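Objective 1b: paired records.
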Amino acid sequence: MKTPSLSRLAIVVIALSVIATLAACGGTDAKKGTPANRLDLEGRTFVGDDVFVDDQPYPLVKGSQLRLSFGDQNIGAQAGCNSMGGDASWAGGVLAVDGKTLVMTEMGCNEALMQQDTWFADVLTSKPTLSQSGSTLTITTGGTVIMLTDEELAVPDASLTGTLWRLDSIVTGDTVSSVPSGVESTLQLSDGGELTADLGCNSGRGRYSARGNTLTVGPIATTRKACSPPESEVEAAVLGLLHGDVSYSIDGNSLNLTARKVVGPGPTRLVYRSS
C-alpha cells in the first residue's frame, strides 16, 4: 500500500481547515442553502399559515394567517388580531427580539385569536432560527416550524383606487392604537380623483390627486351629526391627517398614510386594510 505523499497530506489538512473556518463564520443552512449571515429580509413582509409542531400540522384560527415584516433593525407582526412590533436583529440567522420594546395593540378579539397573538409573540421572542429559500422564510424554535411566503408573491398589492380601505390602526408618535371595537372608518378613492370616507361617525367627501408616493387631499366636506367618544376621537384622527400632502405606500392589502407635517397632537400615520 502506498503512503500518501506529504504534499497530498498538506492539501487535505488545508481543505479541512477551510471547512472548519467556514463553519465557524456563521455557517450555511444546509437544508435551505442560504448563508445565515446573508438573509435578505429588510424591507420585506412574509405571510402564511403553514405551521407544524413536532412534525404535525398546527392549524391556525380559521380565516387567520401570520404576518412578519422586517424593517431597519425592527420587526412588525400580526397573528390575526392585534399588531405587534419592536426592536430586533437577525444576524447569524437568529431572530433576537427585544422583549422590553415589543409592544402590541389592545384590540378586543375572540379568545382564540387572543391566544394566537400570545403564542406568536412567544415564538418571536424565543430567539428562533431563520432560514430562507427564495421567497420562503422558515422560522424554527424547538419543535415548531413556521413557513411564510414573501407577501409580494402571496398577496399582490391592492389598487389604490377602487378599493374599500378599512381603518385598522392609528399611529401617534411611537404609540399604535387599534380602532375601537364597534367603530368603523373607511376610505375609498376613485380613478377620477374623488374621495369618499366614513370617518367613524360622520361621512365625508372631497377631491384628491396622486403623484409618485404623495396624495394631495383637498378640503373634505362632512355631515354634521353629533358624535361621542370613541367615534369622535377616530373621526378627529382621520380628519387630522387627511389634508394637504400625505405620503402613502401600499404593501399587499395594507395602505399606510403618513403625515408630511404633524400639527399638535395629531396622528403621524393611519393604517388601512383592504376589504
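Objective 1b, second protein:
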Amino acid sequence: MNATRAAPSPGLKITPPYGYDAIVPLERGHRVLLPRGATPQFCRSLDAIALTVGEFVAGGRDYPIAFVTSDGGATYAPVAILGLAARQNLFVSGSGEWDAAAYVPAFARRYPFCISKLYVDGEARSDKVVCVAKDYVDPGGIALFDDAGNPSAQWRDIERLLAEYEDDLDRTAEFCAALARLELFAPFTFQAMAADRVTLKVDGMYRVDASRFQSLRPASHKALVAKGFAGHVYAHFHSLENFARLYRRAVQRATAPR
C-alpha cells in the first residue's frame, strides 16, 4: 500500500468503491476531515452492506448474513441485510446515526478511506493505493502525518483497519469460491405471514444449503474445516434467525409515532 503517491499520471485510473464519489490517492501533506462516528451518507439508504468473513461472528449477532451475485452465479459475495424494503436501513436513526447497540460493518467504518487497485492506460497494476474521498481533503481537516512524515497514532489505527479489511476481502473471495465450487449456494426468499397470507416478501438472496452442506463428502468437509471456512458457514446459518428480529424492527419503525 502507498500513502505518499505523487500526482497521478494522465493514464492513471482509480475506481471508487460503491457509495464513494471521487477519490484521490492519500498524500502525507493532506489534511482530512474525519467524521467522528457519523454514518456515511450513502449508508443511510442501504438495504444491505458488504461483509467479510472476519465479521461473520460479530455481524451475525445483529444481521442476517446472505449472499448475492451480480454475474449469474459465477461469483458470490456476503452481505449483511439491513432492511426489508429497497433503500431501507433499519439500523440508522432519523438523525443519521447507526444504532449504537449494533455492530457497524467495516465497509462503513473505513469511510472516507479505502484501498483501490490502479489501472494505467486500462491495464490493472499489481500494487494498490490508499485513497480518500476527495471531498474530505480540506485545509481545515486533521493532519495524519507530522512535518517529518511520521504517521499519527490516529492514522496508524485507520491504516490497520484498512489493511485488515483488505486482507479479509481476499479471504472472503476464497471462501465464496470454495462454496461455489461445491455448489452449496441456493436461492431463498424471506416471507412474513399474517392471517395465512404473505404480507412481505424479500428475494434475490442466496444462502448455503444446509442439506447439501451436511451431505458433503468427508474430504470436502475436512478441507473446509482445515481452512476455517466451516465455522463461517455455521455463523451464517445462525445469523439467518435475525430475519425475525429484522422484521420486528421494521414493524416497530412503521408503527412508531411520527
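Confidence is low (pLDDT under 50) at residues 1-8. The longest strand covers residues 197-208.
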